[in-house]
Amino acid sequence: MHKTITPPKISAQTGLERHADRRTDTAFMGSARAHPDAKVLPLFDLRIPIVPALDGSEAQLRWLSMHDVYAIAKPNEFVFLGEEESGAPVFTCNFQALQTYRSAAAVEEMKPLADLRSLALQGILSQEELLVVSQARALMAWHAVHRCCSRCGAQVRSHDGGWRRQCGACGLDTYPRMDPAVIMLVTRNGRCLLGREHRFPDKLFSTLAGYVEPGDDIEYAVRREVREETGVQVGQVRYAGSQPWPFPHSLMIGCWGEGLSDELTLSAAEISDARWFTREEAASMLAKSHPEGLEVPPSISIAYTLIQSFVDGTLGEAAA
Ligand SMILES: [Zn+2]
């Protein structure tokens, strides 16, 4: 039976009550900022301060009080991530190096600073903290590159607890951006189609993927990307599951596609290789025991989950 899948580790729900309906309430946002238990995750050029365990096997995020944040510098903006069950409001902010040059000692105390991708790959944060920092980083990455109005070039300011930016000159509103991308496992006659992008490490194969373009629906985007990259025609397309992918702000829409043709005509501009793999081969790639040493992406990725579902028999033409 075709099932939707649940991608592991990086998913959507942070465990915080987001209070989206109260972000425009300036009195609520003001009292949240002034709350004695308010906690802030400060980022430093989008790098994340952590407190590692002595043996490095696990780590926690390094949270600060509002007071301690201002002791470093005044942030350009705070983003309200939500409220903990205890009622403590949770914020994040991002310091750029230019803002903190006067407080080098305080920044030094925040080290080590980690990259989100390596934190996710190492699996050293709790699931809950990984979700919070994934959302925090995606939002702060958006703020970092939306300093000016895209229509008139004037300065834009943060509103609604950091979930909207508005131009002070022309009034244009912009909202945190997500880029939808399709990521699909195409199967045919008990085999699945995996490819290699030019940037991939040696021996890594993954599901095909591509951005949804203006005018596409999800099904068309799947068929178009597979045809462009490999020449394979795709018939039925079914949604399988999705995953936010905060590198920096994609939404991966996982699909199964029914392959209608076998022959591969590769687009050298898009991929360096693509092959059909049997279920046994895919299983050995998941298990890192493939005779040629071929591998698939790590288990935090929806690509891994799609391939695993094909190996398990819950995704593919047999399960359709
Ligand atoms: Zn403007």
Over the alpha carbons, how many angstroms does the gyration radius reach?
22 Å
Please, what is the average pLDDT?
A: 93
Number of DSSP E strands: 16
Give the DSSP E fraction (strand runs of 2 or more residues): 25-35%
Q: Could you give me the name of the CATH homologous superfamily of the largest domain? A: Nucleoside Triphosphate Pyrophosphohydrolase
Regions with little confidence, pLDDT below 50 for 5+ residues: none
CATH class category name of the largest domain: Alpha Beta
Quick structural summary:
By secondary structure, this protein is α+β, with helices and mostly antiparallel strands. 25% of the residues lie in helices and 28% in strands.
Offer a few descriptive terms:
six-stranded mixed sheet, 320 residues, Nucleoside Triphosphate Pyrophosphohydrolase, alpha+beta, globular, single chain, binds zinc ion, four-stranded mixed sheet, 28% strand
SSE diagram, text form:
Blueprint lengths: L25 H9 L4 E6 L3 E5 L6 E3 L2 E2 H7 L6 E5 L5 E7 L8 H6 L3 E2 L1 H7 L4 H18 L11 E4 L4 E4 L5 E2 L4 E10 L2 E7 L10 E4 L6 H13 L3 E12 L4 E10 L11 E8 H8 L15 H11 L8
Parallel strand pairs: 1-6, 11-15
Antiparallel strand pairs: 1-4, 2-3, 2-7, 5-6, 8-9, 9-10, 11-12, 11-13, 12-16, 14-15
Helix pairs in contact: 7-8
